[in-house]
Amino acid sequence: MKVAVVDIKGKETGRKADLSDAVFGIEPNKHAVYLDVKQFLANQRQGTHKAKERAEIAGSTRKIKKQKGTGTARAGSIKSGVFKGGGRMFGPRPRNYSFKLNKGLKRLARRSALTMKANDNAITVIEDFNFDAPKTKDFVNVLKALGLENKKSLIVLGESNNNVYLSSRNLKASKVVKSSELSTYGIMNANNVVFLEGSLEGVEANLAK
Question: Does 201 lie in the same domain as 146?
Answer without folding.
Answer: yes
